[in-house]
Design a protein that fits this description.
The chain is α+β, with helices and mostly antiparallel strands. It has helices at residues 49-61, 127-134, and strands at 6-14, 21-25, 36-37, 40-42, 70-79, 84-92, 106-110. It has one domain (6-134): Alpha-Beta Complex (Nucleoside Triphosphate Pyrophosphohydrolase). The chain contains 2 helices and 7 strands; from the N terminus they run ββββαβββα. The radius of gyration is 14 Å and the shape is globular.
Length: 135
C-alpha cells in the first residue's frame, strides 16, 4: 500500500443576506491559479479547522468571524496526483467588517445556481450541488 500525503484544508462558504456565496479567484503564481474557490486555507499542525478559518478569513478577506458563526456543512475528499485533499466546508452567514480583496485575483458574490459557471478545482465541484440544494 502506497503512502499518500494528506493535506487538510478548511474552506468557508460565506453567504450574504441575498443568499449569494462568495468565491475567490486563485492568484497567479499559485497552484491552480485562475480557478475559483471557497476562501480558506491549510490547517496548520495543532490547529483546528475553525481556528484556520478565523485566521484565513481575516488574512484573505479582512473580516472577523466568530467560531459560533461557522456551521460545519460538508466535506470534500479528492485525490490529486501528488496528495489527497480533505476539505471540510463550513457555512457562515455572520461576520464583522466588509469583505476586501487582500490576497485573491478577484472576488465574486454568486447565486448558488450559477456556481457551476466558474471553473473550480476538482475537489470543490461535488460541493456545488449540495450548496445549490441547501440555498
Amino acid at each position: 500500500m502506497t503512502k499518500v500525503k494528506l493535506v487538510l484544508v478548511a474552506a468557508c462558504a460565506l453567504v450574504d443576506s441575498d443568499g449569494r456565496i462568495l468565491i475567490a479567484q486563485r492568484p497567479s503564481g499559485k497552484v491552480m491559479a485562475g480557478l475559483w474557490e471557497f476562501p480558506g486555507g491549510k490547517v496548520e499542525p495543532g490547529e483546528r479547522p475553525e481556528d484556520t478559518l478565523i485566521r484565513e478569513l481575516k488574512e484573505e478577506l479582512g473580516i472577523t468571524v466568530k467560531e459560533p458563526c461557522l456551521a460545519p456543512f460538508a466535506f470534500a475528499s479528492h485525490s490529486y496526483t501528488d496528495f489527497h485533499l480533505l476539505m471540510p466546508l463550513y457555512l457562515c452567514r455572520r461576520w464583522e467588517g466588509s469583505v476586501q480583496q487582500l490576497e485573491h485575483s478577484a472576488l465574486k458574490w454568486v447565486r448558488p445556481r450559477d456556481l457551476g459557471s466558474y471553473p473550480m478545482p476538482p475537489a470543490d465541484l461535488p460541493l456545488i450541488p449540495m450548496l445549490r440544494d441547501l440555498l
